[in-house]
Amino acid sequence: MVDLKTITAVIADDEPLLRHHLNRSLSDAFPQLDIVASEADGKSALESIKQKRPDVVFLDIRMPGLDGISVAKALNGIDPIPLIIFITAYDEYAIQAFDEHAFDYLLKPITEKRLLKTCERIRSYLFSVRTEQRRTDPNSVEAIERLVARIQSPANSYLRWIKASKGDDICLVPVDDVNYLKAEDKYVSVYTRYGEYLIRTPLKELIKQLDPDLFWQIHRATIVRVDAIDRVKRDFTGKMYVHLSSDNVKLAVSRNAQGLFKQM
């Protein structure tokens, strides 16, 4: 089993209360995470990151002096670059944040559920990295570089996040959490393992931005995540349906899309 006890992190936020709260919340959600520095401004954060070389950085975007985006840009020369988790109360920074290879993006106030999800993504990613590194050469960084290139490379043009609404809230939904999308009236409903969200982007535009190995358009009104499919069945009339592995969901497959399942 790969040892994750050595994961280190730096917190940078100009709000003392938030730094304290995040530190305590992380100790509960991620006991293996060692907070090696907690800074109140971008310049101090950058110095600590360069000195401590943490695995993860929780980085506020709006800070006095050097802001979080500028800190992230300055990390391009560090090898390896830490996983950057941006923290902000302003969701309009999302696109800019991901241009700087953000691993995740937390909106204030940070909920326990959302923080737990982020911690699980960090654990899963670092487990994969360290497993791959140990499988090849324990002293080589090539395995890490390959995985970072796959996950964070700007050459990957597929969506990683979907900006969607849930009630009065605007949320950034990881594409990895999406089970299926369905066009309904003027909106598209995004169904995830954690709930339902709404977006205005038409399906015909979304399908161009999703990885075709992971998402199939099975109907003019439906896109489904392939690994969410449990089985495919026909009813007595010959119509084909996919059954998802969770939530007891059944989705119709159009005649034109049935060829997608010939090899399944």
UniProtKB/TrEMBL annotation:
Molecular function terms, GO-annotated: DNA binding; phosphorelay response regulator activity
Superkingdom as given in the UniProt entry: Bacteria
CDD domains linked to this entry: REC_LytTR_AlgR-like
Keyword hit for Lyase: no
Residue ranges occupied by any HTH LytTR-type domain in the UniProt entry: 162-264
Matching InterPro entries: CheY-like_superfamily, LytR-like, LytTR_DNA-bd_dom, Sig_transdc_resp-reg_receiver
Keywords: DNA-binding, Phosphoprotein, Two-component regulatory system
Protein name according to UniProt: DNA-binding response regulator
The species this protein was found in: Photobacterium proteolyticum
